[in-house]
């Protein structure tokens, strides 16, 4: 009917009640006009009754919230999307002819019998569709990073009937997170084409450096580097820590037969600010690459210890376990306040502790017993002093008091039902690099955590918030937020929905897993980070770029009430020891600005940004970044066979090498044949929310009134 296979109207309430109300409206309308004063013609009485009935019927319809559902089958040819790695690592000369074999495979796919079922995309730091007839022109193999997670973007599936993905790459990720988790949830077979050589070359490299992003002046901090070697066991190498070009510490190590060494340095910053450090190895004869002998990084040095206040509505295991976790961090001064009655706490000096807190943890607080006087003090800290806070939200929390700071919460609380559900965390794959959980990314550990008591209700994450974990109940994934963070207008908050999170510590303690402690400490650290220029923020998207890369700047600008400013002139002066450049940012609206500049010379760069309004200086900001110290695409020369194979196996695909042309084409053809060329397209229209419905009602009543007046009726 009308080109649709299914047309359905649904109501929020019973159809029987709806029909009875319509009949009542019909009876009422004609009853009202059975007699009129003065008498009018039968046609006019019928017209007036009909207008009244029609207006009432539409009002009843709006009240019942009708939804029109349309469904039709549309023919979509099944497609295989081929993603080609366009990064610099594809140019590596490892004897496998990476680019030549990639282009040869693409040519054979273009001339095969399935060519009409294939779309080509390039991927590096982003994903872009490319014209099949211009592939050799569009693929430059010069991008400075490889981000697999960009492939698994649901926007790519819009208006397409995708049967499978094919990824042509060396499998080396230099940006973003591992795609395995996102690919599994995507539910589409992934065929991987392994480019390069998976054999290990003779080499030494700094694989990783572990450090705290934020440390404190005059407080020693440990910096640990992992050094790997292949073919150099028994040889000695000097590992050094530098601040800028100044040597901080040097150690000589003997490379282990296992291929892995760890070395720790002690670093004490004398002043606060952003420090550029690097771990370096001296070069050895016969290395396949020396680009991975240097590992630079930036460290933020702060001036004082952070005062963390745990404010609990009652004594609880959650309070005890969180306190123990936070006390393991030397840079925290941890205080507690445990409520025992409306204004009384177990500990002394509650007012002084609240006033001096840099970060506040609200654990099932405020309760109904909490005095308004005490809560006013907490409210003052959050609303007027922008103190960051953590909230453990559950049925012990007094929602009416909490509503007084509702604008600062990371969630919107619509209802709490008073019950608890046993729930496990289900990490959001888009947030695996979030600093709150990034040190805990072992999905097996998270999946094996015991259930906590989840607060049953209608709780929604705000638009500007990030859901770090959803809930999983009886292995069913629900879009109910469990852990939510919010960083908006320089105000930070985190919310756990539920209680008994201490059970996570008991589960992991026996296995020597620091998941719980790291999570709690990371939350406190993240909350304690404050933007000094809260009205003006300028930063580069990365701290390290390769020579010739486009350096991307983003800025945010607000007035004193934190309303976005969209008409400012923002100019950035960029300097290195030998180079200087200027950049003007473009407004994107909503207080956001962006700009890009290509810097060809290597070195450390500093930048100073000025925001002007009506030609006058409004705000200033500065920062640092580096160009050329590392070329991340050249560090790992070995093809990551393990990742490509795992990605294929986990998604029901297969791994091939570029010479397996016939096998690849057959596998793509097989995946296409398994998918129907018909797709059901559903559309829903909320008829009750259309403003024209009310306009029609007003017009009908107005017309009825006009006819009555013209007829001299009361």
From TrEMBL:
Claim: Membrane is one of the keywords in the record: yes
Superkingdom of origin: Bacteria
SUPFAM superfamilies reported in the protein's UniProt record: Class I glutamine amidotransferase-like, vWA-like
Keyword Iron attached: no
Annotated transmembrane regions: 12-33, 45-64
CDD domains named in the record: vWFA
Keywords: Membrane, Transmembrane, Transmembrane helix
Protein name as catalogued: VWA domain-containing protein
Species of the source: Ignavibacterium album
């Amino acid at each position: 009917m009308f080109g649709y296979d299914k047309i359905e109207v649904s109501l929020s309430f019973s159809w029987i009640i709806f029909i009875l109300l319509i009949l009542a409206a019909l009876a009422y309308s004609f009853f009202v006009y059975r007699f009129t004063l003065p008498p009018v013609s039968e046609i006019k009485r019928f017209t007036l009754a009909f207008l009244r009935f029609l207006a009432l019927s539409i009002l009843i319809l709006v009240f019942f919230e009708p939804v029109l559902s349309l469904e039709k089958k549309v023919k979509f040819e099944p497609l295989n999307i081929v993603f080609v790695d366009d990064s610099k690592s594809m140019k590596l000369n490892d004897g496998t002819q990476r680019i030549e074999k990639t282009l040869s495979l693409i040519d054979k796919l273009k001339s095969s019998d399935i060519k009409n079922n294939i779309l080509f995309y390039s991927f590096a730091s982003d994903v872009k569709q490319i014209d099949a007839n211009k592939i050799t022109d569009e693929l430059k193999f010069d991008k400075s990073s490889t981000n697999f997670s960009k492939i698994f973007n649901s926007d790519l599936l819009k208006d397409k009937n995708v049967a499978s993905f094919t990824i042509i790459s060396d499998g080396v990720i230099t940006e973003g997170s591992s795609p395995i988790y996102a690919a599994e949830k995507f539910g589409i077979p992934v065929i991987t084409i392994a480019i390069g050589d998976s054999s290990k070359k003779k080499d030494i490299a700094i694989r990783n450096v572990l450090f705290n992003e934020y440390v404190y002046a005059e407080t020693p901090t440990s910096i640990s580097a992992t050094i790997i070697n292949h073919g150099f066991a028994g040889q000695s190498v000097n590992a050094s820590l530098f601040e800028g070009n100044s040597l901080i510490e040097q150690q000589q190590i003997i490379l282990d037969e296992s291929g892995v060494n760890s070395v720790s340095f002690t670093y004490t910053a004398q002043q606060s600010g952003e420090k550029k450090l690097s771990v370096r190895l001296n070069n050895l004869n016969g290395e396949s690459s020396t680009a991975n002998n240097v590992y630079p990084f930036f460290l933020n040095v702060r001036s004082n210890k952070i005062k963390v206040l745990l404010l609990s509505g009652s004594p609880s295991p959650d309070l005890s376990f969180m306190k123990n976790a936070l006390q393991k961090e030397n840079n925290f001064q941890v205080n507690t306040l445990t409520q025992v009655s409306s204004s009384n706490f177990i500990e002394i000096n509650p007012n002084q502790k609240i006033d001096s807190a840099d970060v506040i943890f609200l654990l099932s607080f405020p309760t109904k017993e909490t005095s308004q006087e005490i809560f006013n003090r907490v409210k003052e800290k959050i609303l007027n002093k922008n103190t960051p806070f953590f909230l453990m939200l559950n049925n012990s929390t007094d929602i009416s008091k909490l509503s007084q700071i509702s604008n600062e919460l990371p969630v919107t609380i619509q209802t709490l039902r008073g019950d608890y559900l046993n729930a496990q965390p289900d990490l959001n794959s888009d947030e695996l690099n979030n600093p709150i959980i990034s040190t805990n990314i072992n999905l097996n550990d998270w999946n094996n955590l015991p259930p906590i008591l989840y607060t049953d209700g209608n709780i929604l994450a705000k638009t500007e918030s990030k859901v770090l974990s959803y809930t999983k109940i009886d292995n069913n994934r629900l879009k109910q937020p469990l852990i939510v963070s919010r960083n908006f207008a320089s105000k930070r908050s985190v919310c756990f929905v539920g209680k008994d999170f201490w059970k996570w510590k008991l589960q992991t303690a026996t296995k020597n897993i620091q998941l719980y402690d790291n999570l709690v400490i990371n939350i406190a650290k993240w909350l304690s980070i404050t933007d000094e220029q809260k009205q003006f923020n300028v930063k580069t998207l990365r701290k390290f770029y390769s020579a010739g890369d486009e350096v991307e700047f983003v800025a945010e600008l607000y007035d004193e009430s934190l309303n976005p400013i969209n008409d400012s002139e923002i100019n950035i002066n960029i300097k290195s020891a030998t180079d200087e450049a200027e950049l003007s940012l473009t407004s994107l609206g909503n207080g956001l600005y962006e700009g890009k500049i290509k810097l060809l010379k290597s070195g450390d760069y500093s930048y100073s940004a000025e925001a002007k309004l009506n030609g006058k200086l409004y705000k200033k900001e500065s920062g640092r970044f580096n160009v050329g110290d590392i070329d991340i695409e050249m560090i790992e020369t070995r093809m990551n066979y393990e990742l490509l194979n795992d990605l294929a196996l986990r998604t029901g695909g297969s791994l091939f090498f570029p010479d397996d042309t016939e096998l690849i084409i057959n596998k793509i053809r097989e995946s296409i044949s398994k998918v129907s060329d018909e797709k059901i397209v559903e559309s829903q229209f909320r008829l009750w929310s259309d403003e024209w419905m009310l306009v029609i009602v007003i017009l009908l009543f107005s017309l009825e009134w006009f006819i009555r007046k013209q007829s001299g009726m009361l």
